[in-house]
Amino acid sequence: MRRSQEFYSHPCLQSHPICQQNLRGCRPTLEHRPQIIFIIFGLLHLIIGILILFCSRDVVEYKMRYDDKCGLSENRTTGSTILEFDNPASSAKFYMYYELHDFYQSHFRFANSYSKSQIRGNYVEDTNDCDPIRSEYTETMVPCGLMSQYFFTDYYQVLNGDFSDEKIAWNHEKGNLYKMPNDEYPESARWMKDSSISRNFPNETMNEHFMVWMRLSPHKTFRKLFAISQNGIPQNAQVQVSCDYPYTNFHGERFVVFMKLGGLGGENLLLGILNIVMCAITIIFTVAFLMMKKQRQRRRRNAIDDEAPVELQEEP
Fold first, then answer.
1. Which terminus of the chain has a lower count of CB atoms within 10 Å, N or C?
2. What positions belong to coiled-coil segments (predicted)?
3. SS (H, E, C) the chain
4. How far apart are CA 247 and CA 67, in angstroms?
5. Cα–Cα distance between 226 and 190 in angstroms, integer?
6. What's the CA gap between 25 and 182, in Å, rounded?
7. What does pLDDT average to in each consecutive run of 10 residues of the chain (316 residues)?
8. Bridge-partner residues for 84, per DSSP?
């Protein structure tokens, strides 16, 4: 009891503003100067949006589905066809892609099933990272894992154009991230040397198409670069397609895409529209701040007028 009395009689408790609930209050005052910031951001978004939409107009794309033309089915897992595009001739730089629909390359089991050390040219005994595809007949497969085993092997050849599959991978990938398989692996384990694959995709893990394939796509519909033409695209381009990727591995739709990029890359209509929308939002906030400023100034003038002394006129 005595201890509690000493506690409550402490000088700090008797005089401190916290104990006496006498803290100084703080009332924020609305400031109208941020309207300048909104105007600047609005102009930036407007300029960026218009620039993106303007550059998207330069993008040219020709696209055609081919899996239905190859006649793929459960009974016929491979095939071939010739695609004939209806396009004018162009001398601009064109890129050729293949596009896959409903291929979940980013699935956690698929994306994590490969050995980084193995594709960098090292001999790996512990291939647990490659589950569930690690070996065949007790021999470690090179490269192992789902990502490597499901390497997309459809092949495309432009019959009347000059397209090259060189330099489609990034410069730092060749010789750094990807190297030839280690010589300690037996020939029977190096499945990419099989003639069905090596005739179109030589050099095993050093093949640039393999490097492009190993870049994970976060979407179920994605495109992978296949070839580049520095000399443009011929009129009515013809593409011979070898549908070598088994239908049993993938039932989704397959496309061949020719594209001429714009000044900012591919077509980004959504990004341009989002910037225009952000510009509109900043304009709305700017107008709201201006109206609040006018209203506050009006109230201040009215308050001054109400406080002004009134002169009394003498009666005659």
1. C
2. none
3. CHHHHHHHCCHHHHHCCCCCCCCCCCCCCCCCCHHHHHHHHHHHHHHHHHHHHHHHCCCEEEEEECCCCCCCCCCCCCEEEEEECCCCCECCCEEEEEEECCCCCCCHHHHCCCCHHHHCCCCCCCCHHHCCCCEECCEECCCCCHHHHCCCCCEEEECCCCCECCCCCCCCCECCCECCCCCCCCHHHCHHHCHHHHCCCCCHHHCHHHHHHCCCCCCCCEEEEEEEECCCECCCCEEEEEECCCCCCCCCCEEEEEEECECCECCCHHHHHHHHHHHHHHHHHHHHHHHHHHHHHHHHHHHHHHHCCCCCCCCC
4. 9
5. 23
6. 73
7. 58 66 69 76 91 87 92 82 93 94 90 89 83 64 88 93 91 88 87 88 93 93 95 93 90 94 82 92 86 78 65 51
8. 238
Dig out the tokens for 252 from the structure: 């989704």
Question: In this structure, how many other beta carbons lie within 10 angstroms of the beta carbon of residue 41?
Answer: 16
- pTM (2 d.p.): 0.76
pLDDT of residue 187: 86
